Amino acid sequence: MQIIEDSLDQLLKQVAIRTNAVANREEVEKSVREIIANVIKDGDQAVKMYEQKFDNVELESLKVTQREIDDAYEATDDTVIKALELAKANITSFHQMEVEDSFIDAKKKGVIRGEKIAPLAAVGLYVPGGTAAYPSSILMNVIPAKIAGVSRIVMVTPPQKDGLNKAVLAAAKIAGVDEIYTVGGAQAIASLAYGTETVPRVDKITGPGNVFVATAKKQVFGQVDIDMIAGPSEIGVIAGSQAVPSQVAADLLSQAEHDKLARPILVTDDRSLAEAVSKEMDRQVDLLPRKEIAKAAMENEGFIAVVDDIDDAFTLMNAVAPEHLEVQLPDAIEYLNQIKNAGSVFLGFSASEPLGDYLAGPNHILPTGGTARFFSPLGVQDFVKRTQFVSYTRDALKKEKDAITTLARVEGLEAHARAIESRFDD
Amino acid sequence: MQIIEDSLDQLLKQVAIRTNAVANREEVEKSVREIIANVIKDGDQAVKMYEQKFDNVELESLKVTQREIDDAYEATDDTVIKALELAKANITSFHQMEVEDSFIDAKKKGVIRGEKIAPLAAVGLYVPGGTAAYPSSILMNVIPAKIAGVSRIVMVTPPQKDGLNKAVLAAAKIAGVDEIYTVGGAQAIASLAYGTETVPRVDKITGPGNVFVATAKKQVFGQVDIDMIAGPSEIGVIAGSQAVPSQVAADLLSQAEHDKLARPILVTDDRSLAEAVSKEMDRQVDLLPRKEIAKAAMENEGFIAVVDDIDDAFTLMNAVAPEHLEVQLPDAIEYLNQIKNAGSVFLGFSASEPLGDYLAGPNHILPTGGTARFFSPLGVQDFVKRTQFVSYTRDALKKEKDAITTLARVEGLEAHARAIESRFDD
To answer: Is the domain of A315 the same as that of A280?
Structure first.
């Protein structure tokens, strides 16, 4: 990968250019708008028409039977089932710590105030087809929803000529998906947002997908809630002289193999480490089945920045706001305070990023493209809603009556003032 | 208002038609796209050009001086300042209960897992101009951000020929806004999302606005985070025979006066209450300064539904998912469990909705248009982000190594497996 050695200011400028590149795709927007309108109008019939058109599949029924799911589970290798079960246990124990409590406050005489936290009623999970159908992502989407208490979890995934991926169906069974439909693309998102005769309308749609899926999610936002729009995978590694080049290189490649636009970034204060990692990546990448993808990512988006000291490395990484951040430094946990923007953080020499993709328990559905500035990993919090409530006695209201009517009248909202005063007309 | 008496099924169908009406405004989308592109390209110059074009104001400087803010505060009536201070105290004590804690878990040998909650660095608040500039909304937006720990709170508001609303500036000072710019419309949203020479780029934009503002917020979503897209105000009242018709009518009118598309809804099991409230509304509405608006809302969107029993009233109201819900029944708090979808709930005969608009402490920025199904009131949670972290020793990683590499290879991600194995090459 390209090694850049420059002042922090110059590096920050380069990073800013990279993260601001967001394409505006008017044509895609238009055809997605049309697909959504047709699914609203014609329901299942429109969905089947689009499946024929885009996936070249003639569907009789959209629903995957319990039998198909059970058969796929039986056909899945036992070591895979066991690995999925271990992952489920770790993901569950981590996400249980995210559960928020309702609260109630009765400190003031005659006044009750509170906030009730309740699960969404139904959520939809989009699972891409082909090689991007990841069993691990099903666990990451479904388990937090289950812990939140969502009672209807609906999965959609494009039909596949040779049948659905068996490990995906096994993971859906293990995670506790309630129903599965073979619908893909924008038509799947439209179905979940508005409902068809077969596919139920849900309250929130999560899961990654291609540009049509992402655009459709953005368009239905407001009709339903959505998770963030996922971009290409990113890994940032901050490493000092004690890091092992072959391990740093392997970790960078683990994300580079995802996508030609994936972004592997190393920031180090050690020029010789930079060179050793670069050399190791060139050596290792040729041994990978997905070497073409990984090489493209290294060339398109990857870089190694050499900075003056480790504080600069954190400043630069905070500007990148990477999806994954490894801190390969001694006593890595002590840097937690310096990490401002990152989705998921891997501390120390042994916390290799794929540990988080599969097993440690934190979520792997994470903010990308610099959005870790404001977005968070998918979690239990994404599958609940809050409802606030107040109760005032007439005496309690009387004490605050004048303040309310004063503010209402300053805002020119006379009926607001009168609603309060109507309690004291007699 | 129209009184409907029908089966629950028929009522649910009518409600479904109402809530699904979402207009698609392609022209607005296009001109907003252009405004955003120009603000990205030309910064302040584009902003000033649009302010001249749309607001007919030639701006030298975009920034409101501290002097202007202090003068407005001094010029604001003392009773208003005191009412704002009381509101601030109640809003603060309520929102402090929303604060979430970071967590760390060290139950397993060699494994540390946790989630760090941190404030967003900078947020932008849009305040509409004219009569829709509400001091109370500034408190509702800013106080949760302050409690979350946001260090830079930026307000934007369209320039006004006769100067900015003094009570709005006073509220900004009381709430603790850090800087104010006179920019409105889509150009204001673009400025906050991308930054100009004068207006800083923020991480999240909140606050209501017209269709241009709402469309711009939707378009910049992903570049920054946004709060929900606000629609016309709604009030649902569930009332039994013990409710006082004049009070129910006054409460319904308090939201009807907001907007010609506001939606006042009463659901009752008492036909005679329905008739009395309808009569009272007709009488009271004529006494209001904003009677034209309130009458239009009553006609366009308002209705009174008479149902067989109170359980049906909750079923119907849950389908509406109103922004505000009053429960005017004895022992109202006992119905909390039956309320599935509502933004803010007012329990009992004295909890009149404007109490929540101004003073009780819960937020008044609430989900509308049926989105209470999945959106929540604005809160402290909206101004933080979560970062997850893990640390594993080599021994701890060794125990889970095989499960990770098994899952990586099932997904065809060889480089993921090798990253883990690179720790055990020796």
So the answer is: yes
The string of pLDDT tens digits covering residues A136-192 is: 999 999 999 999 999 999 999 999 888 899 999 999 999 999 999 999 999 999 999
Q: DSSP secondary structure string, B20-31? A: T-----HHHHHH
Say which residue the tokens 């150009």 belong to. Answer: B187
**A124 and A241, same domain (yes or no):** no
Question: Which of B226, B257, B280 is the last residue before a domain boundary?
Answer: B226
ipTM: 0.94
The reported pLDDT for the residue numbered B17 is 63
pLDDT of res. A140 = 97
Distance from CA of A98 to the nearest CA of B (A): 8
Is pLDDT above 70 for A23? no
Would you please indicate which residues of B are annotated as catalytic (active-site) residues?
A: 323-324
Q: What are phi and psi of B264, to 5 degrees?
A: -95, 125
Expressed as residue numbers, the domain containing A405 is 394-424
Closest CB to B83 among A407, A415, A416: A407
Our count of domains for chain A comes to 3
Judge whether A173 lies within some domain: yes
Structure tokens at A406: 């004063």
What span, in angstroms and rounded, lies between the C-alpha atoms of B417 and B405?
4
Mean pLDDT comparison of A123-137, A214-228, B313-327, highest-scoring range: B313-327
- Same domain as A109, residue A247: no
SS3 A425: coil
**A26-42 and A44-55 helices, crossing angle to 10°:** 140
- Position A332 in a domain: yes
Residues of A in contact with B24 (CB under 8 A): 33, 37
Domain end call among A226, A245, A268: A226
Asked whether residue B221 is domain-assigned, the answer is yes
CA distances B12 to A329, B19, B321, Å, are 60, 11, 12
d(CA B335, CA B373): 18
Write out the catalytic residue numbers of A: 323-324
- Pairing of β A384-392 and β A111-119: antiparallel
Q: Which of A27, A50, A44 is nearest to A194 (CA)?
A: A44
Give the gyration radius of chain B's Cα atoms: 25
CA dist A86 and B407 (Å) reads: 11
Please check whether residues B52 and B111 belong to one and the same domain: yes
For residues A186 and A290, membership in a common domain is answered with no
Indicate the pLDDT class of residue A29, thresholds 50, 70 and 90: confident
- Asked whether the beta carbons of B219 and A22 are under 8 A apart, the reply is no
Say if residue B363 is in the same domain as residue B399. no
What are the phi and psi torsion angles at A345 (to 5°)? -115, 135
* In a domain? residue B222: yes
Read off the CATH number of the domain in which A369 is found: 3.40.50.1980
Q: B374: distance to nearest CA of chain A, Å?
A: 6
Q: Render B133-193 in DSSP notation, one character per residue.
A: --HHHHHHHHHHHHHHT-SEEEEE----TT-S-HHHHHHHHHHT--EEE---HHHHHHHHH
B 158-217 → A contacts, CB under 8 A: 167, 194, 203-204
Confirm or reject contact between A379 and chain B (CB < 8 A): yes
Interface test with B, best of A86, A123, A131, A422 (most B CBs within 10 A): A422
Answer yes or no: do A327 and A222 share one domain.
no
Q: Are residues B218 and B351 in the same domain?
A: no
